[in-house]
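User: Sequence recovery, please. Input:
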């Protein structure tokens, strides 16, 4: 064993040993309890960033720990390789998405291996491989047969530059999250999955996810958004049809004075066609199409609208209500129509004031009288019904039910439940994605591809067109196809590709049997491994990815492919990695390596003083990033891992600190030197295995500290994943061991120190595996430290010495009590004062003084 800690040579050696021995490969073993540990897989962007490093380090510690605890651990890794991020990156780098993706996978895989993560690389998958997406094409066909997948026209967020549909979450301040260009609303025929059929089940099961963070469960519930209310029909005056609205406030229907339709509502153009309002309506709809059409986006815009020229009839009051199209009405909420009640909804109130529309109060607060002309804001509270016909005088909460009863009797409304959740639009007008296995025939219409023709392979020889436009519609070998139903030669293959969230909604099942070729996965393997015991990933995926994965699992369950309905038992959402920003007046944001150290810090390019900005999430745009490769070169993987775990609990944001990285390296160097100092004395000694009573007074505290540390580290990892406090406990033990002088030929000390140092290595091995493997081998162990059992603590060592303390009142014996050694004096005082026997002698009297003689007596003077 060398005196100097050399992480580069140690880490390279052990990574080669692990790979050569196949140490991390696992198989189903019914004799052992399974543990499926999974981190959200990355898309191959080109480089692993510090967010990846933190996420995967957390997972690797748990995987290694569980394996040492006797579990058969599945810990796989793969690539979320399809989708717009990879395609846009390829375009910006003037290369083909396939080449870009596969080259990045090779590079990132090397980076992950260099970190020493315990992945079973035999299970590696890439979602862009035909052998993977073949099976989601197969499931698509099954869903289509059952009506679970369907096609319809829908307004979508459309980016002209990227030539694709965007989810609301991909629209930022009205612009595309990738190219920054304005997004508009466009009507397209899209493929959808009927996730709304499972809305109630998804919502109910939110309360059956005890291993999930409460904030994530709440986010899922809010996204599903169940509302109880009424569906009410308003007859259109000029047409023999109704506008259907959903409202949670049927008690206010007598106060509905106008109707608002979403600009995308199919009735808007019909109602205005041929009227004096047509030009204004068309211009308004075109302008709103450029606004961000989401609840979040609406907050950025002034509420505005245009009269369509048509009217509808209030089914309860008979009032003739003007119909507007308004930018605050959204097709994705309710029915796309809003029963506007300005006296009792602030948004409607502001709109009515702006356009001079009638305001009618129908709910009056107790003991007050609201004057619409004098109101400065809507009244949304409870009260008594007024101006509501036969319902006047009723409490409005009671009137809700009575009014719906009347609407149902007149067949003009009904009780219903509405969900915020909308069906999952999976169509993407992009090239780099899984082809949708459908054919469009001029004679037969939409025809599914025969299962025997799967997979429909994405042609990787296709060149992207200008602006990133998909080449698939123009690719003759792909787009032109014979209809499998009638044989026509001029049928056209579906050229939309699937949303990349489809691939990430079942990859965890595929990991269980990645080479299985008779179906999506081997049912026996999935029955053994699934569900995932611990899932780890960023909170940014708290809604869509997790919700879609939960839905897709239900689809698999409905088809009898899996026996469970929830894919993830426990979920950990790790915090972000943050760092201060550095800004130069001339050169803008700077990378850390572009700044010279000193007081003040200066720009290396121009010498100007650098402004130290606030601590923010690491991002390339702000250049406040740290390259993991630079860390690995300077300090090694173990130091990088240790810092990521020690700097903060996993659920909190980690603030980057160069000093913290230095400190992590210094600690590992201390561990290395401590073992080097003792190796000659302990190499041939056997580790002390108790009982503690055999030890001398000098060694007994060491033994106790070892077992206290085992308990602390075990509980911190097992119960809370608080690796920072676990590491701190090991640091305390190491500090104690440094105080033990090395003495040759003292067998007791050597055996206790061997126990202590082996324990340090075992407890640190999930965290810094390379260093621990090296020391473990030097200690004479032939097998990997990962194959060793996790240490167990000795309960006897945790029990502290107890002392009998005499309790006196004014110098007279009144009681006795036992306390543990080192109990704080404050606690001893409280225990004595609360003693029942003592209470009889001090009740009603002022305590003047309390004298404590350590481990002997306590005298209460009254």
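Assistant: Recovered sequence (862 residues):
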């Amino acid at each position: 064993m060398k005196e100097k800690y050399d992480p580069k040579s140690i880490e390279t050696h052990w990574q080669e040993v692990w790979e050569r021995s196949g140490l991390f490969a696992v198989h189903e073993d019914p004799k052992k309890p399974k543990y499926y540990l999974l981190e959200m897989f990355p898309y191959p962007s080109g480089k692993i960033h510090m967010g990846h490093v933190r996420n995967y380090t957390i997972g690797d510690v748990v995987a290694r720990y569980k394996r040492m605890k006797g579990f058969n651990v599945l810990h796989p890794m793969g690539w979320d390789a399809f989708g717009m991020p990879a395609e846009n990156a390829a375009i910006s780098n003037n290369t083909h998405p396939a080449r870009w993706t596969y080259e990045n996978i090779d590079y990132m895989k090397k980076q992950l291996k260099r970190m020493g993560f315990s992945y079973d690389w035999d299970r590696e998958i890439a979602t862009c491989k035909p052998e993977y997406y073949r099976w989601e094409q197969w499931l698509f066909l099954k869903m289509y047969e059952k009506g679970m997948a369907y096609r319809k026209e829908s307004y979508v967020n459309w980016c002209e530059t990227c030539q694709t549909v965007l989810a609301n979450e991909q629209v930022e301040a009205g612009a595309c999250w990738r190219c920054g260009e304005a997004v508009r609303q466009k009507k397209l025929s899209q493929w959808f999955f009927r996730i709304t059929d499972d809305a109630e089940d998804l919502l109910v099961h939110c309360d059956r996810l005890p291993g999930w963070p409460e904030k994530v469960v709440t986010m899922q519930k809010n996204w599903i958004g169940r509302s109880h209310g009424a569906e009410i029909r308003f007859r259109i005056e000029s047409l023999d049809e109704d506008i259907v609205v959903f409202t949670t406030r049927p008690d206010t229907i007598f106060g509905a004075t106008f109707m608002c339709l979403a600009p995308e509502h199919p009735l808007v153009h019909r109602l205005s066609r041929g009227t004096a309002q047509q030009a204004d309506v068309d211009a308004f709809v075109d302008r709103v199409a450029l606004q961000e059409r989401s609840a979040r986006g609406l907050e950025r815009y002034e509420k505005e609208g245009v009269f369509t020229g048509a009217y509808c009839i209030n089914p309860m009051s008979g009032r003739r209500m003007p119909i507007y199209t308004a930018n605050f009405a959204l097709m994705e909420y309710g029915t796309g129509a809003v029963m506007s009640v300005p006296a009792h909804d602030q948004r409607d109130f502001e709109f009515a004031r702006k356009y001079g529309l009638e305001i009618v109060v129908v709910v009056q607060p107790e003991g007050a009288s609201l004057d619409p002309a004098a109101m400065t804001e809507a009244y949304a509270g409870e009260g008594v019904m007024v101006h509501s016909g036969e319902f006047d005088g009723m409490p409005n909460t009671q009137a809700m039910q009575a009014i719906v009863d009347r609407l149902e009797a007149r067949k003009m409304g009904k009780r219903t439940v509405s969900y915020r959740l909308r069906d999952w639009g999976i169509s993407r007008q992009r090239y780099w994605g899984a082809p949708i296995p459908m054919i469009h025939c001029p004679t037969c219409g939409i025809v599914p591809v025969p299962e025997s023709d799967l997979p429909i392979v994405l042609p990787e020889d296709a060149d992207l067109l200008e602006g990133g436009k998909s080449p698939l519609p123009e690719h003759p070998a792909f787009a032109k196809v014979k209809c499998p139903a009638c044989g026509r030669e001029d049928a056209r293959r579906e050229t939309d590709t699937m949303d990349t969230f489809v691939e990430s909604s079942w990859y965890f099942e595929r990991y269980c049997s990645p080479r299985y070729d008779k179906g999506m996965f081997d049912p026996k393997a999935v029955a053994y491994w699934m569900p995932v015991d611990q899932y780890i990933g960023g909170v940014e995926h708290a809604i869509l990815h997790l919700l879609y994965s939960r839905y897709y699992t239900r689809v698999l369950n409905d088809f009898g492919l899996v026996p469970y309905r929830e894919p993830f038992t426990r979920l950990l959402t790790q915090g972000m990695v943050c760092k201060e920003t550095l800004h130069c007046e001339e050169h803008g944001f700077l990378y850390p390596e572009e700044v010279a150290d000193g007081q003040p810090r200066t720009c290396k390019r121009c010498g100007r003083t650098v402004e130290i900005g606030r601590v923010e999430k690491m991002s390339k745009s702000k250049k406040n990033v740290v390259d993991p490769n630079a860390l690995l070169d300077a300090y090694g993987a173990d130091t990088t891992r240790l810092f990521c775990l020690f700097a903060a609990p996993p659920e909190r944001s980690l603030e980057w600190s160069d000093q913290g990285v230095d400190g992590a390296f210094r600690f590992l160097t201390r561990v290395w030197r401590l073992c080097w100092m003792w190796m000659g004395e302990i190499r041939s000694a056997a580790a002390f295995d108790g009982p503690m009573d055999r030890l001398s007074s000098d060694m007994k505290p060491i033994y106790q500290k070892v077992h206290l540390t085992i308990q602390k580290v075990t509980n911190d990892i097992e119960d809370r994943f608080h690796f920072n406090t676990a590491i701190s406990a090991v640091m305390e033990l190491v500090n104690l061991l440094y105080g033990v002088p090395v003495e040759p030929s003292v067998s007791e000390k050597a055996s206790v120190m061997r126990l202590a140092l082996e324990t340090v290595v075992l407890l640190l091995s999930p965290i810094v595996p390379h260093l621990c493997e090296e020391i473990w081998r030097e200690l004479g162990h032939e097998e990997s430290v990962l194959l060793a059992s996790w240490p167990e603590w000795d309960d006897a060592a945790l029990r502290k010495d107890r002392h009998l303390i005499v309790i006196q009142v004014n110098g007279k014996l009144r009681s006795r009590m036992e306390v543990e050694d080192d109990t704080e004096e404050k606690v001893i005082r409280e225990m004595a004062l609360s003693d029942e026997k003592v209470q009889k002698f001090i009740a009603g009297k002022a305590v003047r003084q309390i004298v404590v003689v350590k481990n002997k007596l306590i005298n209460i003077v009254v």
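The first strand starts at residue 34 and ends at 39.
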